Amino acid sequence: MGEREREPRDNGIRRVAQWLRKARRAVALTGAGMSTESGIPDFRSQGGLWAQVDPREVATVEALETNYPRVREFYRKRIDEIKKHRPHLGHEILARWEKAGRLQAVATQNIDGFHQMAGNRAVHELHGSLRRFYCLDCGRPATEAEFLGGEPCPHCRGRLRPGVVMFGELLPMDAWNAAETAMRAADLVLVIGTSLEVYPVNQLPALSQGKRVLINLEPTDQQALFDEVLIGRAGEVLAAIDR
Ligand code: BV8
């Protein structure tokens, strides 16, 4: 980054650090860009997951019904991939902020569990989790080993699926309600590493009456919503705010 671009960003970082110090009910909303510095690709960037795989074939309710083996294989590989990586400094900073009472909650679209692994307790997983599994047919829970082993449901011999939210499915009510409540009460919202293209999570930042900050590698379509846009890598920008 050149000197001329760095200067306004440094001012922005100072402003956000000040808002964070004053905030009583700060909330973070994270997306796939939060985990790219851990080595996990996002979805919609060049080289993202959806550039390689058509989401309609692997991440929709229709695909689960008509193309179950392909969906199972897609998520089996994602589980393998996630296990190779760890949370990074940015995750750790958010966990520290929660512990210090500076951050109330993290609402996340990520299914990798990295926020919890880094130490955050109040995490609302809006698109579910790749650490939970259940039966597509009877709804009862299953284990990762059963899913990975390609076994049928131990209760009804049905098909097992990961506990993630596919396109066309409703979000988990408890996570959604908690995130919505936190957003409405928030005096500072840090939106980190998300294109804000996916409904209904992309409606959440507008619910807050407080300061809204976007930390992302590139601008999104919702620029006008934000009081500050910090263009950069999540881990680096969070570290700069933390300094
Ligand atoms: C729902 C599965 C009600 C989990 C995912 C037309 C037809 C059908 C449906 C719709 C339609 N129009 C709208 C809809 C609704 C649909 C939707 O929004 N579609 C969009 C895409 C048009 N939404 C739904 O279906 C939702 N449910 O609406 O229920 C309903 C019910 C019945 C019928 C209709 C509606 C459910 C959505 C769940 C989607 N699940 N995948 C998985 O496998 O992970 S999608 C996927 O997108 C992931 O879950 C992901 O979490 C989510 C959001 O993506 P992002 O996290 O934002 O990632 P993205 O790559 O886009 O952006 C990353 C950003 O980070 C980039 O800007 C990049 O520059 C930046 N970045 C990268 N690295 C860094 C960085 N920034 C900072 N630092 C870095 N280091």
From TrEMBL:
EC number: 2.3.1.286
Example GO molecular function: histone deacetylase activity, NAD-dependent
Active site feature: H127
Residue ranges of domain Deacetylase sirtuin-type in the record: 6-243
Protein name: protein acetyllysine N-acetyltransferase
Enzyme class: transferase
Keywords linked to the UniProt accession: Metal-binding, NAD, Transferase, Zinc
Gene3D superfamilies found in the cross-reference section: SIR2/SIRT2 'Small Domain (3.30.1600.10), TPP-binding domain (3.40.50.1220)
Residues binding Zn(2+): C135, C138, C153, C156
Keyword Nucleotide-binding listed: no
